[in-house]
Design goal:
The structure is a single chain. This protein is an alpha+beta fold. The chain has four domains: 170 residues, Triger factor/SurA peptide-binding fold (Orthogonal Bundle), CATH 1.10.4030; 129 residues, no CATH class; 101 residues; 101 residues, Chitinase A, domain 3 (Roll), CATH 3.10.50.40. Helix content is 50%, strand content 17%. Strands 6, 11, 12, 13 and 14 form a five-stranded antiparallel sheet that branches. It has a four-stranded antiparallel sheet with strand order 15-5-17-16. A hairpin with a 2-residue loop joins strand 3 and strand 4. Helix 5 crosses helix 7, helix 12 crosses helix 23 and helix 14 packs across helix 19.
Length: 621
């Protein structure tokens, strides 16, 4: 459903409609309330189908979102079949949850009234101009999205009904004011502390490492000193972009394409339309009589806008004098459409009958079809023809590449000749340091696979994108191996010095800790004193701050903690704790955070309970 919105809009349309249906209808789809479907089910929830097409549509939207979020990294993510399978399963479970919510709302006879829908539409900023609801904008947006007014209103009704249920459920959760104030005060509490830092660096000169220790460490940890596996490749690539320079287009081809596709260079005729609607109600004959009376009044000279405001059953357009803004062929009901484009500017139709009722239509302005000249569009046409020719050549050469690289597996020379390309080479590289020309997840995955490393044959054709293919073969392979002791002796020595200096620092820190715990002053040691330390303190090692706030603030014995820090060790002592009264803003932030947490917990529990009592089938899985 949302793809229709995107395809028919220029950004603002998508934002407008997506703002309404971002969670519910994006997940459930319009079919769930406009009628059943014979499509294959992705899931069946208490007899109600969630179609495989709905699942696929939502999965593709989620895939696009991930691609935007992760950028170039997404290619590697998308190659992980297990991860993408979990994404698809997550999409399906969200669809199931939305269907369960809708069924529950229906069972509870929850329904949003027409006035609530009207008010909601008026409040949507997407439909406002200068802060005021604009009917022209409203109609333009939903029609560009491919929906009639009644469709959109019904779509919104279902969405608001779902929200009504979830709001009533979640609003039952609340955070006690006293609880929020206590937590906010605790978060804002400050502490006065004293601490001694024992840096491992101070003991480096006290450490001696023998050759025997280095040898022993090397023997026990040789797996830590492996070289990176490296390869170099030969490859042939086929790209549509590279083929564009190899195709030529004649002037008569450009002119022929213009004439054959003339409709593409013609503007669509438009009509600015106002209408007066008389709905059928319970008596179609009476409705027709009323409509004929309205038509007679308009034909008799009464102002169309005034009559529309007083008499039209289309309440939205009535407030604008019946104005529906500009429309194009094919947007409205066929009968309405036919009548509109048979009228000239200023003319009023006879009665027009549609599924909504009887209409009296007036064309208030008209724009006829125009055609762009050949000179205005010939450059664009030529580029399109070049692109098409390059793609056709690509598909021809693609099959050549497949055939020749398979038939002659011992080299790439003949494959290169077949597609008029060059065999290219890389230097040695590791898995995570590939040169840009082959640095594609699809290529790296194949290059380091057993199929390439253990054979002297060409790879299968690798699809990097639909318009960029490559065949590779191994040129050189340097397997990962243990580095020699001579190459890592200094590295091991530094590591052992660090480990032993840390041990010495810890021994000294334990002595200080014992003294402070007993209430004894440690002489000749620098003691750091800090006042009003916050939990968010950044100028002190985080381990020290964390330890300070773990210590009990009121005891008869010294509160001391020994912790490992970035530099070595530290002994932390609590001097005093200062409680504060949190500000209203701080309390409000805590309330919002707790409410979100409670809402998430409640929602999950609610959905779990619905699933436990529902018949849910997954026939496609």
């Amino acid at each position: 459903m949302l793809e229709k919105i995107r395809d028919g809009s220029q950004g603002v349309v998508a934002k407008a409609i997506l703002g309404v249906v971002i969670l519910s209808f994006a997940l459930a789809g319009i079919g769930s309330y406009l009628g059943g479907s014979n499509e294959v089910a992705g899931a069946i929830v208490n007899g109600q189908k969630i179609t495989a097409a709905q699942v696929e549509d939502e999965f593709q939207q989620e895939r696009s979102r991930l691609e935007q979020q992760f950028g170039e990294m997404f290619k590697a993510i998308a190659n992980d079949a297990n991860y993408m399978a979990s994404v698809r399963q997550g999409v399906l479970e969200r669809l199931v949850a939305q269907e369960l919510i809708e069924q529950t709302a229906h069972a509870m006879d929850l329904r949003v009234g027409d006035e609530e829908i009207k008010l909601a539409i008026r409040k949507m900023p997407e439909f406002q101009v200068d802060g005021q609801f604009d009917n022209d904008r409203y109609l333009m947006l939903i029609r560009r999205a491919g929906y009639r007014v009644e469709q959109f209103k019904e779509m919104l009704r279902v969405d608001m009904t779902r929200r009504q249920l979830m709001t009533s459920l979640i609003s039952s959760d609340f955070t006690l004011d006293s609880e929020a104030k206590a937590l906010a005060a605790l978060e804002q509490q400050t502490r006065d502390i004293r601490f001694i830092e024992v840096a491992a660096a101070d003991f480096i000169n006290d450490v001696t490492v023998s050759d025997e220790q280095i040898n022993d460490y090397y023997d026990l940890n040789s797996g830590q000193f492996m070289t990176q596996e490296q390869i170099s490749l030969e490859f042939v690539e086929l790209k549509v972009d590279a083929l564009k320079s190899k195709v030529s287009i004649e002037a008569d081809q450009v002119l022929a394409a213009y004439n054959e596709n003339l409709s593409q260079y013609q503007s669509t005729p438009r009509r600015k339309v106002s209408h007066i609607l008389v709905e059928f109600g319970d008596d179609e004959i009476a409705a027709q009589a009323t409509a004929n009376d309205i038509l007679a009044r308009v034909q008799g000279g009464e102002d169309f806008a005034t009559v529309a405001k007083a008499s039209s059953d289309d309440t939205f357009s009535a407030e604008q004098g019946g104005d529906l803004d500009w429309i194009e062929p094919g947007v409205m009901d066929p009968s309405f459409d036919e009548a509109v484009f048979a009228l000239s500017k200023g003319e009023v139709s006879s009665l027009v009958k549609t599924e909504f009722g009887f209409h009296v239509i007036k064309v208030t302005d008209a724009e006829e079809m125009t055609t762009k000249s050949f000179d205005d569009v010939k450059e664009g046409i030529e580029q399109e023809l070049v692109d098409e020719a390059a793609k056709e050549l690509f598909y021809e050469l693609q099959q050549e590449l497949v055939d020749v690289s398979f038939q002659v597996p011992e080299n790439l020379d003949e494959a290169a000749v077949a597609i008029d390309a060059q065999v290219q080479h890389t230097e040695l590289f590791a898995r995570f340091g590939a040169p840009a020309v082959v640095n594609y997840p699809e290529v790296i995955s194949v290059a380091f696979s057993d199929a390439v490393l253990s054979s002297a044959s060409n790879s299968d054709v690798i699809e990097i994108t639909p318009e960029h293919h490559m065949v590779i073969r191994l040129k050189q392979h340097n397997p990962s191996e243990v580095k020699s002791l001579a190459d890592v002796t200094e590295q091991i020595k530094q590591r052992l010095v660090q480990e032993h200096s840390q041990e010495l620092a810890k021994e000294k820190a334990q002595d200080y800790f014992a003294s402070w715990s007993a209430g004894t002053v440690v002489d000749g040691v620098s003691v750091v004193e800090k006042s009003a330390v916050k939990r968010s303190e950044r100028d002190i090692d985080n381990a020290i701050v964390t330890a300070a706030f773990k210590l009990a603030k009121a005891t008869d014995t010294p509160q001391v903690e020994l912790v490992k820090t970035v530099k070595g060790q530290a002994i932390v002592s609590l001097v005093a704790a200062h409680d504060v009264v949190a500000t209203e803003q701080q309390v409000a932030e805590v309330v919002n955070r707790l409410n979100r947490l409670n809402a998430d917990t409640t929602y999950k529990a609610f959905i779990d309970s619905l699933k436990a009592t529902s018949d849910i089938q997954y026939p496609v899985q």
